[in-house]
Design a protein that fits this description.
Length: 732
């Protein structure tokens, strides 16, 4: 890993990738290259531009070729002759900036970002380049930061603006990342959807103009994940070049690819400029969140595996990154709001007998919360439901040998709550004006330190009283009427809100490092890398239907390690789709995530209980692979009726393969198999008593059980809808 600086050319490389830019003749930064590693040399010839047409503007009278319209740039500004979208916009007395190169510094490791979650690295794991630019129009400095990691094909970027003038300035747009790629013959892949069908894989061809995904909901959202990839048209899951981009942020974001009239593609990622205006007083600085860029020459899987390893080793907080996650049972779909202590203790006892490790009490244990119309903010136990209190319930649950977890929705307030009656000003909204509700609730004003302090104290008291093992942090509505009476500049609202959320997470995880947090937002409405930093697992979706989960988990794995995906077996008919899938398929899908149950154990027959016990034992024996192994997508549920994926251990001696078929085929193919990947060609792998070599499993495939064809009743090993099997492979 090295950062080579030569005659104002900066070259970050680690043998896998190179990221190269330089100082242009006008002092601005020009982008030269991002991709597979290149040798050390001068690459300024990459910046070749044609003489612009008469319709273009050029910077110098005597150099018609120097036009910002045709130059690949590193952090473009508005108003200087580059007519594409800028990375930065300022307003005030001087509404145009002209950042010119001033200095650079290389440091070992990766300095932490103030008040923001980000990837981290020790001095041996990464090097960081800071490039300082100054605005030639006013005393404002821009510091661009680039980290290259020792072993991964990743560049982490962020930007910081420092106001050295005597006056206040306004930042109207400040992207975390901007990069100009020399061509546009690419497809954009993104993860989009809505509640109950989050992170479906969408692919579209780049065309001249802007193609973007974004959120202005105050959360990263169910609808678009802060991720995008650009792939060459011939790239597949396993081959070809892919660039992946992720934004380490949980609030409003914009991610876009702008193709200009010369087929240059500008990718940008950052806080959404809509509704954003940050006032920077004299002497203050503004720090953008982090954005990540990954290069893969091994298709989409190669990109995903890089994100997976990066998050596993350099993002998830220390205590949890390598720790096995408990198999949990959650009472939500089993009881909703209708429970009492007796019911819960019975539930816990039965769960323990099945082999479950953690009992999670979901919504409804506090205030007077018998439905979703009240009590958010009143974090005191409901003594009607739990007359001996929450500490006593926790103690009783723990005495069965289970760990104990609780649901909170810390950012919300019900209009019908003691907290709202005492502090109506703590709810977001324009005072005296109508406020839009979402799930009958309002949002607490996390831009106010006193609100964060109050919720911290309430949660701390409960964590201590219950000796809590786990928290599910939910967030069930988006932000409307974004206004805080406590704020001077409303354009700062959304970012300050998220900083408040991070502040609470930071304080809770620092004070209670051993509490496992699972983030949730009405299912997967805030599944992003920033929250993974605090909460190493995320409830992937409220949709627990096994067939739907194939798509959700497949899509989510594009950007996130499967060990970060909460995935549970729930009851049938499924509560979101009314579909009835077999218990075996529900577990076969849920094994590929942080496993758990979302059902009432007493509703299971004796036979089902035995099946569940076996499932739990199976997951316990596979859990190390889910945590440490390399996940490989084999067959996409978006392309056919069949899905397949696998995990291979890092030493290639073990693997598990998940194979699924959503609906049956009449008179199907006879010789059915699934081609595996990532194995050692020369190892003989035992599978269900047979031995196959790695090469045959990868070249010919793993044979699938014989399918019913209308006439082979005796011989058929599978048939009908909802078929699935999880294979375990062990090298001899
Ligand atoms: C939404 C979550 O996604 C569910 O799992 C559950 O916790 C409910 N909220 C509770 O209100």
């Amino acid at each position: 890993m090295s950062i080579l600086v030569n005659q104002q050319q900066f070259h970050l490389t680690n043998g896998k990738i190179s990221y190269i830019f330089h100082v242009l003749k006008n002092g601005q930064l020009g982008h030269l290259y991002f991709g597979k590693a290149l040798r050390e040399r001068d690459y300024r010839h990459f910046q070749r531009t044609n003489n612009p047409t008469p319709a273009s503007c050029h910077t110098y009278e005597d150099d018609a070729a120097f036009s910002l319209e045709t130059i690949q740039q590193e952090y473009p500004v508005y108003g200087k002759g580059d007519f594409r979208e800028p990375a930065f916009m300022v307003s005030g007395e001087k509404p145009i900036a002209n950042f010119v190169y001033k200095s650079y510094e290389v440091v070992k490791g990766k300095p932490r970002l103030k008040d923001l979650p980000a990837t981290y690295a020790t001095s041996g794991e990464a090097e960081t380049l800071f490039v300082v630019l100054e605005d030639s129009y006013q005393q404002v400095e821009l510091e661009l930061s680039y980290t290259i990691f020792e072993n991964e094909a990743v560049i982490a970027r962020n930007a910081r603006l420092i106001n050295k003038t005597d006056v206040e300035i306004s930042i109207d747009r400040m992207m975390s990342l901007s990069v100009d790629l020399p061509h546009a013959d690419m497809e954009m892949v993104h993860l989009s959807g809505t509640w109950a069908r989050e992170r479906h894989v969408k692919t579209r061809k780049l065309e001249q103009g802007i193609q973007s995904i974004s959120s202005i909901r105050g959360a990263s959202s169910h609808h678009h994940n802060p991720f995008l990839a650009l792939k060459t048209p011939d790239a597949t899951e396993h081959t070809g070049e892919v660039l992946g981009f992720q934004f380490v942020y949980s609030g409003n974001f914009l991610a876009q690819a702008e193709v200009d009239h010369y087929d240059v593609t500008r990718v940008q990622m950052g806080i959404h400029p809509l509704g954003f205006q940050w006032k920077l007083r004299s002497g203050e600085s503004f720090q953008t969140p982090e954005a990540l860029m990954v290069y893969s020459d091994q298709g989409m899987n190669g990109m995903s595996q890089t994100f997976h390893r990066l998050y596993r080793h350099q993002l998830i907080r220390e205590q949890w990154k390598y720790k096995e996650r408990p198999i949990l049972i959650n009472n939500w779909e089993a009881t909703y709001f209708d429970f009492n202590e007796e019911k819960l203790l019975h539930f816990a006892k039965e769960a323990k007998e099945l082999g479950v490790e953690l009992f999670v009490l979901d919504d409804g244990w506090f205030g007077k919360r018998n439905n979703d119309r009240s009590s958010l903010g009143d974090w005191t136990v409901d003594l009607e439901k739990l007359p001996d209190g929450i500490a006593s319930l926790a103690k009783k649950v723990k005495s069965t040998g289970l760990q104990f977890g609780l649901w909170f929705e810390p950012e919300m307030i019900s209009p019908d709550s003691h907290l709202f009656r005492e502090h109506p000003e703590w709810a977001i909204g324009i005072p005296g004006e109508h406020v839009t509700l979402g799930r009958n609730q309002r949002v607490l004003d996390y831009t106010r330190a006193e609100v964060v302090d109050y919720i911290f104290d309430r949660m701390k008291a409960i964590i201590e009283a219950t000796n809590l093992d786990y928290i599910k942090w939910d967030m069930n509505r988006n932000i409307t009427e974004a206004y805080s009476a406590g704020l001077e500049h409303q354009g700062e609202f959304f970012h300050r809100y998220i900083l408040g959320v991070y502040d609470l997470y930071e304080r809770l995880t620092s004070e209670f490092p051993n509490v496992l947090f699972e983030s949730c937002a009405g299912g997967g409405g805030r599944f992003d890398p920033a929250l993974l930093y605090y909460a190493p697992q995320t409830w992937a979706s409220d949709d627990t239907d096994a067939v739907e989960r194939l798509k959700i988990q497949y899509g989510t794995s594009m950007a996130y390690p499967i060990y970060s995906m909460g995935s549970h077996v729930s009851a049938v008919p499924n509560h979101q789709t009314l579909r009835e899938t077999p218990l075996s398929m529900r577990a076969d899908v849920a094994y590929f995530g942080t496993f758990g149950y979302e059902l009432d154990p007493s509703s299971l027959s004796d036979e089902e209980k035995e099946i569940v016990k076996a499932q739990i034992k199976r997951y316990q024996s596979l859990r190390h692979l889910v945590r440490d192994g390399e996940f490989i997508r084999l067959q996409s549920p978006f392309e056919s009726n069949e899905t397949a994926w696998m995990i291979v251990s890092t030493d290639q001696k073990e693997a598990i393969v998940g194979w699924y078929k959503a609906s049956s085929t009449p008179n199907p193919r006879t010789n059915q198999s699934v081609k595996l990947r990532g194995l050692d060609s020369d190892y003989g792998y035992q599978v269900d008593g047979d031995t196959y070599y790695g090469d045959e499993l990868m070249q010919h495939g793993l044979p699938l059980p014989i399918e019913f064809n209308g006439a082979n009743g005796e011989q058929a090993e599978r048939g009908g809808d909802f078929q699935s099997k999880v294979f375990y492979l062990k090298a001899e």
